Every structure is written in C-alpha cells, then in structure tokens.
Amino acid sequence: MKYAHSLILILVLAAAANAEEAPPSMAAGSITLAGAHQLLDAAQSYAKAHAAPGAAIAIVDSAGNLVVLERLDGTFPAAPAVSTGKARTAVLFAKPTHALEDAVNTGRFTMVTLPEVTSFTPLKGGVPIVAGGRIVGAIGVSGAASADQDDEIAQAAVDAFTKTLAQADSVTHLDHTAVSAAFKSGAHLVRGPGYKVDASRRDGSGEAEVHTQDTDVFYVVSGHATFVTGGEMVDPHTTAPNEIRGTSIRNGTTQKLSAGDVVVVPSGVPHWFQTVAEPFDYFVVKSQS
Question: Is the pLDDT score of 203 beyond 90?
C-alpha cells in the first residue's frame, strides 16, 4: 500500500503545480491565447521536422477572430494573409478548406463569388479545431513546400493539440504491481501537458543537475541520501536543451533525506545527490515552468 499512497500524494502535487503553471487551452467554448500557442508550437515542430521551407501559421477563435499569427523564415510575403483567410474559412464554414477547394475544382465556381467579409479562401491548409463536440477555432497554414504540405502541417498540429486536450481530461490509474515494477527499472509513470511523473531508483551518487524549465518535486519512498541544493555547480556543461550537468556543487545547502520526505526544487536551482544509501526509491514530478 505504501506505493499506492505515495503515488496518490505525488500526483496531487503534480496536478496542483500544473494547475498553477499551465493556463487553460479553452475558455467559453473557444481556444485561448495559451491554447493557440500550444497549437502554434505543434505546427512549427511538424514544419521543421518535415523540412518545410517556410510557412505562415494563423490561428483564429470560434468566431474567426485572429488569435496568433506567426511567419516562419523563408515564406512568401502574402502567406500571412492567405493563412489567416484559410483559418477563418475553416472555422466559419465548419470544415477543412481542402473540401471547399475540391468543390470549386469540381465545378462549383459560384462559391468564389461569396462576399469578401467571409474571408473566403478555398485553398488547402485550413483545418477547424473540434473539442467537446464543437468547433473552438481553426488553424491556417500557407507558404510551405506545396499545398499538400500546408494541409499536412495544419492537420498534424490539430491532431497533436486535440490529443493533448484528451490527455488532460483523462484519468490515469496505475496499480501497485505496475508501480513496483517501474521502480526496478526507473521508468516513466505518467506524462501530461506540462508535467510528468517518474519512478526513480538510485544506487549511488550522481552528477549535479540544473533544469532551466522544470520544477522537480521528490517524494522519498525508501532509503537515505545526502542531498545538496543551491550553491555553485562545478564544471557545468549542457547535456540537452534546458538541462545542465556538473561534477558536484560547492557552497550549497546539505540536507538528509529519508522515507516520507518531500523536496521541491524550483527550475534553475542546482541540486545533487551527494551520497545514497542504496536502494533509494523516490517519485519525481517534473512540472514545466
């Protein structure tokens, strides 16, 4: 039962930290600025991973009002206006713009006479965002390698965003068997928007660490350790984006950790397990700032 009780506590801490640090993606049935930036990040990541030479990305709310517009390097001058038109068309017509382009191309030419106020842009690359069974906004992409790639970027971003929304609304239950097994290998337990929970085991001391974006919450399940925080990292070097390691810490604060202890290490604070009495098992919540 100790693992079950510990996991409940650590997930509560994660939820509380995440609630403070992650603004809601939706409000009053429409995408928020925070949600639009999540969608923008997904679109940019997909574009870069698939060698898009450039693109303009526009995100509108459920009424077609522009929330975010980003012009990536390498796209043509009119792309921002075209991407905005695609997004507005997708949300106001409640369907992807590739369907409207197909309708025009197959003979419904009168659609191009629609009033300018609708910002009608029947070109591939506009995709509505559906959440909770209703359209909450749309994204438009223009200026990638082709019309098909515009559409791919927009759809990939919406897919990633709606998956994140679904994960945020889901409930995760891990029984004691799964948690116990995770401690043996040091495994990820739960991942969500802005946080993750790991089951960690240490058999000895390690490198000093600094996470420039993550706040760490430790809950000690078993074992003893000498833990140093603050001070100055010795021989710092970057090992990954937003992650710095060092050989040790000088002039830090030393604390003795044992079962039941909780430690919160804010982003940017050096920390180091100086000594560990094995096995040392602990839950780790990483909450992104």
Answer: no
Question: Residue 14 gets which letter from DSSP?
Answer: H
Residues 280/229, Cβ–Cβ less than 8 Å = no
Where is 212: in which H helix or E strand?
Answer: none
What are the structural domains, with CATH classification, of the chain? Answer: 2-21+194-288 (2.60.120.10), 26-168 (3.30.450.150)
| 61 residue type, one letter | D
Q: Cis omega before residue 279 (within 30°)?
A: yes
Burial of 41 (0-12, 13-18, 19+ CB in 10 A): middle
The CA distance from 22 to 220, in Å, is: 26
Please tell me the pTM assigned to this model.
Answer: 0.53
Rounded CA-CA distance 75/56 in Å is 7
Of 152, 138, 284, 141, which Cα lies nearest the Cα of 220? 284
In angstroms, the CA 233 to CA 251 distance is: 9
Pure H helices in 64-192: 79-93, 97-105, 147-169, 176-185
Alpha-carbon distance of 24 to 21, in angstroms, equals 10
Round to whole Å and give the CA distance between 204 and 148.
52
Amino acid letter, residue 22 = A
Contact indicator for 271, 207 with CB cutoff of 8 Å:
no
Q: Which residue has the tokens 């397990």?
A: 273
Condensed to tens digits (0 to 9), the pLDDT of residues 8-41 reads: 455 545 544 444 444 567 777 899 998 999 999 9
State how far the Cα of 154 lies from the Cα of 142, in Å rounded to an integer. Answer: 9
User: Which residue is it, tokens 């409930």?
Assistant: 171
